[in-house]
Amino acid sequence: MMVLEAKNIKKNFGKLEVLKGVSLSVSKGDVIAIIGPSGSGKSTFLRCMINLEKVSGGDIAIDGEPVVTGGIYVKSQQAKDAYKKLGMVFQNFNLFPHMSVIDNITSAPIHVKKIPAAEAKEQARKLLAQVGLSEKENSYPFELSGGQQQRVAIARALALKPDILLFDEPTSALDPELTGEVLAVIRNLAQEHMTLLIVTHEMAFAHDVANKIVFMDKGVIAAEGSPDEIFCNCPNERVNAFLKNYNQ
Amino acid sequence: MFWTVTLSLLEGFGVTAKIFALTLLFALPIGLIMSFGSMSKFKPLKWLVKIFVWIIRGTPLMLQLIVIYYGPGLIGAWAAKLSYTNALISWIGTWGVPERFFAVMVAFIINYSCYFSEIYRGGIESMSRGQYEAGQVLGFTKIQVFFKIILIQVIKKILPAMSNEIITLVKDTSLARIIAVYEIIWAAQVFIKRDGLIWPLIYTGAFYLVFCGLLTLLFGFFERKLDYYKG
Amino acid sequence: MKKLYKALALVFALAICMTACSQAPVSDDSKTSAPQNSTASDLDYIKDKGEMIVGITEYEPMNYLDDKGEWTGFDTEFAQMVAEKLGVTAKFIVIDWDGKIMELDSKAIDCVWNGMTLTDEVKNGMSCTDPYVVNAQVLVMPADKIDNYKSVEDLKDLTFVAESGSAGEAAIQDAGYSCTAVTTQADCLLEVSSGAADACVIDNTMANAMTGEGTSYADLKPGLALTSEDYGIGFRKGSDVTVEVNKIIKELKADGSLQELADKYQLTLAE
Questions:
Q1: Which of C18, C96, C187 sits opposite B18 (nearest CB)?
Q2: What CA–CA distance (Å, rounded) separates C140 from C138?
Q3: Which of A65, A90, A163, B180 would give a disulfide with A85, using CB separation of 3.0 to 4.6 Å?
Q4: How far apart are CA C137 and CA C206, in angstroms?
Q5: Which positions of chain A have pLDDT values less than 50?
Q6: ipTM score of complex
């Protein structure tokens, strides 16, 4: 079964049509990288998946549960709960500045999932170890580098045990020397067969880690396929032009 | 004489402190509710609140005190004299002045709620959208997002403006004497009128200074408490 | 973070305590908001509620507090006598003098009875009784200079202050001089004492009570009387109480009780 299925998604900002019918199916264990030029609608598409933007048309089902049908949002508890299967990591981390690292990670498990504080803390420590920041649990976000903040943000998203984790350009706000540590963490998740949907500009990383590449341009999927198909002998000229431009 | 004056001023200062405390007690939450109104997506409510805030901030508190205290009685007396009458007019004819202290509280709470609402609005609107979005994708409800994530950050941002406004309130309480509520300045003026003594009026300055000094320390304490993070 | 919330809660609790504990005496004039019969006369209105609220300022020897903290003075006792005749009790409330007409018209008070000089302005704004006491407006200056000014002509080079809208202000203007208006008679003395003005013109009774030894104005002295004037009681404009009170005043004069009161406070009754 598809863990996430989007059909013919449309999105308008006023008269501007940002998504002109985008369809994507995500199977369990998929690592899908969405690439494409700025303004192609890839971030908007990702944000539509997790209800940060309202779609103007199309269908979305999460783990078989329809949450949008024919552009209409389903107002049921099941639909509401379905979104809890999705986690999200933002370009600008969006950590809570007034909470320590450990509180950032435990707040949602404690207040949303109602997990006992001690248990949430124990789990948070494991996640911090996983992203290599065990010694930072009592630090505050402003005391961390960008790369460290993004790793905390990943741990925070993982604490809710999502079925799919969405990444919206997770390294775009980082200095080049800090991207490696974040990409390493995402790579580990992929190796553990976590389902990932990644909007990124890191072509080498996408090639390396994804089992499927989606190339978006001007609000549509211009090409999709395995990394080798997209990066080596792509029949689409726009993809080639974009990649050529990118490699310079 | 010094003790007589001190005791008398202390009694007046009790009223000053009462106006101050009650105003804060009500205006802080009401201001927050009003700030939601002024940011509402429902346009009529938003404009209603904005026009109300404009009127209250655009007229002197002294005028508001006079209107709120004398207004009902004046309108009542006017309606009672009208030759034409109906149920509404005869009801208005029964209007009388409210209690003086009550009128002072109404005027101060309305006035300060408006100023506070604008401070809250500035603070809330300066919050980045990302904080709301992060809360949403983690499954927090809107109310949880506001109280667990936004509010404490807003408080840190607005604390300097708030402390300024609250210290202004301490001194604004002296306007209550316009409608004969006997606060500390009134108590001091009694000595001028009755005994020809000027120094009690100057002496009230000490009360205000000490009170504002304590408030400054209190706000300093809060600012240090919130200094543990940046951003 | 928890500590911060605790601290905030503490402040909140303190604020509640403060309001609960400081039950400072607040004038209980809530009765004035009781429903009124709109067709009744002002006299009936006062009789119905059983009390007459008298707006005053603290002003010796007219209205002031005795050692026990009770109101006394000529006007206090006088008002109590009149109230008794009306069959009501007199209740005294200190008002901001500038707001007296609004206090009357909004029925916050029923009359002003506080050594009020009957000027045209006062007579226009309210319904006034016949004069009951005569007073003078006197020049007050530093004690070492006052004796140099014996006539109105002598005053031509002086700068003056007087209470805004007072009989003193009118007296200066009638003499053909200009003056600076301040809010209270007491402020006039402060202006002169501080050298901001050369002289002020205030009530004779006030001038005697507030200058000389034992006051902040030991260096000031009253002198030349510019005008004499009448004191009257002010009711709401159009009130029918005025006529009634005029009658009562005549009775009190006739039986000598008002003269007795005037002697007690060293005042001169009006003819």
A1: C18
A2: 6
A3: A163
A4: 10
A5: none
A6: 0.90
Q: Which CATH number belongs to the domain containing residue B128 in this structure?
A: 1.10.3720.10
- Chain A partners within 8 Å of B147 (Cβ): none
- Which residues 160-199 in chain B show a CB within 8 A of chain C? 177-182, 189-190, 192-199
Q: Does C47 have pLDDT greater than 60? A: yes
Q: Indicate yes or no: CB of C32 within 8 angstroms of CB of B80.
A: no
Residues C230-242: what's their mean pLDDT?
Answer: 93
Fold held by C134-229: D-Maltodextrin-Binding Protein; domain 2 (3.40.190)
Q: Options 3.30.930.10, 3.40.190.10, 3.40.1000.10, 3.40.50.2300; which CATH number does C45-132+232-269 get?
A: 3.40.190.10
Is the Cβ pair B222, C7 closer than 8 Å? yes
Amino acid at B3: W
The string of DSSP codes covering C141-204 is EETTTGGG--SGGGGTT--EEEETTSHHHHHHHHTT--EEEESSHHHHHHHHHTTSSSEEEEEH
Domain range for B31 is 2-228
Residues B97-121 pLDDT 10s? 889 999 999 999 999 999 999 999 9
Just give the CATH number of A2-247.
Answer: 3.40.50.300
Q: Which amino acid is at A193?
A: H
Residue-wise pLDDT tens digits, A94-130 = 999 999 999 999 999 999 999 999 999 999 999 999 9
CATH 3.40.190.10 residue ranges of chain C are 45-132+232-269, 134-229
Residue A243: what residue type?
Answer: L
User: Which candidate, C182, C165, C168, places its Cα nearest to that of C140?
Assistant: C168
What does the pLDDT read at residue B53? 97
* Cβ contact, residue pair B96, C34, below 8 Å: yes
Provide the shortest C-alpha distance from residue B141 to chain A (in Å). Answer: 8
What is the pLDDT, as a whole number, of residue B196? 74
